[in-house]
Inverse folding.
């Protein structure tokens, strides 16, 4: 935890904080988590598994993004305070700020939707409480013709 805490406090050099933690660590981890979430949602047989994957993966991505941004921002501030180049400190903060704005813009535009070509199909009947919950969810998100399904399952 020492390395993680040192990055969070901005104690690492700016180059290490920006290039290693922000690009070489965060980008591949973000892609891997995103692809795993997409695979679980796209190929999973359970809406519960897809929901858990999106919630856990989304929270993990948010946590990693905040850790990387805050640590790198603090490192850029410390770099300048220690007599380092104002240019590199400012450029790092500019890139971090633009990246944060891009992430917020993506989050603001996000809305749940079905993938093109996906369709809803009925699953075998379940107990009445699960059936009632599924019908309630279908009434909110599905087309009227699918409201009689016992449960909702994504199929391609």
């Amino acid at each position: 935890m020492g390395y993680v805490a040192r990055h969070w406090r901005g104690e690492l050099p700016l180059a290490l904080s920006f290039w290693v933690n922000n690009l070489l660590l965060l980008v591949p981890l973000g892609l891997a988590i995103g692809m795993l979430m997409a695979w679980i949602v796209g190929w999973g047989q359970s809406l519960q598994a897809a929901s858990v994957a999106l919630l856990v993966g989304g929270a993990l991505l948010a946590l990693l993004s905040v850790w990387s941004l805050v640590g790198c921002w603090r490192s850029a501030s410390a770099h300048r305070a220690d007599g380092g180049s104002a240019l590199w400190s400012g450029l790092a903060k500019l890139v971090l700020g633009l990246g944060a704005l891009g992430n917020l813009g993506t989050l603001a535009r996000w809305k749940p939707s079905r993938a093109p070509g996906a369709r809803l199909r009925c699953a075998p009947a379940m107990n009445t409480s699960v059936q009632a919950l599924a019908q309630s969810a279908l009434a909110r998100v599905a087309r009227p013709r699918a409201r009689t399904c016992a449960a909702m399952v994504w199929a391609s």
In short: DSSP finds five helices and two strands in the chain. Confidence is low (pLDDT under 50) at residues 118-131, 141-156.
